[in-house]
Amino acid sequence: MASSSSDSSGLLDIILPATARLFDYSGAAISLFDDQDRLLYANTCYYNLICYKWGTLPTWPDIVRDNYARGQGLIADTDDIELWIQTVLAKRRTQTYRQFEIDAWDGRWLLMTETWIPDVGLLGIGVDITLAKNITTTLKQEYQNALVRAETDQLTDLGNRRALESLRKFLLSKEPRLQVTALMIDIDQFKPYNDTLGHLQGDQCLQQVAGVIRGSIKMSESYPIRLGGDEFLVLILDAPLSIAQQLAQRIKNRMRISAITHPATGSGLVTLSMGLASREIADSTCFTSLLKAADDALYQAKRNGRDCITSPMETSGSQHPLNSHLEAP
User: pTM of the predicted model, to two decimals?
Assistant: First the structure.
């Protein structure tokens, strides 16, 4: 037997209050707007989200304007709230179903779904995803920290060879091409230092030298790296060779001030040999050539008696030791 309209009405009288209670206990922010975007129904969670008194029935644009003006409820990240509202309204009822994320001034994040039926209204359901969002953010941060640790030499806190490889890829991706200067650094007679004083003292020496290198760098686009053992490298981006020469001399001067004792050198102090080279990095071959040229200059410094800086002549491929009296700012 077919049910009468009065039976249907009676059933709705039972279902609607029960549904409203279910909505309130769901933990979701639930709203229903009519075709004019005026609120027809909202549960307690939605009213709490938009910071409105329960039972009020504002339009959606008025909710956004009020929240924006008061700095509460939903966040609209804009300098022009009217333009923002018009932009959102232009796509608010263009799809039967859409999903997006919003954040609130109280720190909550919600995953929102909107279901639109023409001539009926727009049903919005927001689920709190703050915890999941925070976990995702934490995981991303941990991932970034792991990448940093993977590219950091654990003894000296300078970059390692993996960091050098990342830097190489970065340089090859740059347009226009960058001029890069390499400063290769080696501790003089480090093996007898280790053999005489032991590896623990040797590690401390490496840390002290790394500190001197790091503390001497004034240019923002400079990247200090420990290549391994007692060999270090500083890559200086988009700077003339003269700037790198000043850096090398500054390192040399600070090493003298540090006065790290060495039992096997004539001066009785730890000294450094350094080599400089500069190239425009157009491809991997240029990068490899740059490092080789700096390494060759370093070993020329060793042959010149150690404790000096060697760089290429500006007008030829030969090398010469920099004047020991050159002072850097």
Answer: 0.58
